[in-house]
Design goal:
62% of the residues lie in helices and 0% in strands. It is mainly alpha-helical. It has one domain. It starts with 10 loop residues before the first helix and ends in a 13-residue tail after the last helix. Bound molecules: magnesium ion. Magnesium ion binds next to helix 2 and helix 3.
């Protein structure tokens, strides 16, 4: 039985699906050559998430932005972890650090940002495997944040919903650039 609502595949299968959507829409697959650009795009989504948490009275926006963060990370994990035998598919599941007591969006995303920074640091040292581990821990943080939101459905469902939406969007989402 799946713990992920109506989605019955694994997180890895879902990563393959979101990656296929991205490629079908004309975006470059994540690689070590475009690593920094792809991480920069994760940061962009984290900023959108914080903005949604600060401004939005609509939980759907926040959830959709969180799904964007997860989708970008999953696409990177799908492409970059193959040389290390894949990623752990969310087996590291529970939180080790407490969430901040008051809901401060900047504090809530701080560990996520720290792992993105860690991924960049390791990448620049040529320590690719550790860079991938940081990305995976960043993905784990998205699940922790989601639990904090008290949303109606789980993050995997939100990812499926956002991926379905992305499938209907125009080529490169109407942008010129292919990096994402
Ligand atoms: Mg977004």
């Amino acid at each position: 039985m799946s713990p992920h609502g109506y989605y019955h595949g694994t997180l890895r299968d879902l990563a393959e699906r979101v990656h296929a959507t991205s490629v079908a829409k004309g975006f470059d697959p994540p690689s070590w050559d475009n690593f920094l650009a792809k991480v920069a795009l994760v940061y962009t989504e984290v900023d959108e998430l914080v903005e949604a948490m600060l401004l939005s009275i609509n939980l759907d926006d926040t959830e959709a932005e969180l799904a964007d963060v997860a989708i970008r990370l999953m696409s990177m994990l799908h492409c970059l972890s193959a040389e290390f035998g894949g990623w752990s598919d969310g087996r590291i599941v529970d939180e080790v650090r407490p969430m901040p007591r008051f809901f401060d969006p900047h504090a809530v995303v701080r560990p996520l940002r720290e792992h993105l920074r860690g991924a960049i640091k390791k990448f620049r040292k040529g320590e690719r495997r550790d860079a991938v581990i940081h990305l995976e821990l960043a993905l784990l943080e998205t699940f922790r944040i989601h639990r904090r939101l008290d949303a109606d459905f789980d993050l995997v469902t939100a990812i499926v919903v956002k991926n379905n939406f992305n499938q209907e969007r125009p080529f490169r989402h109407g942008n010129q650039e292919s990096v994402g």
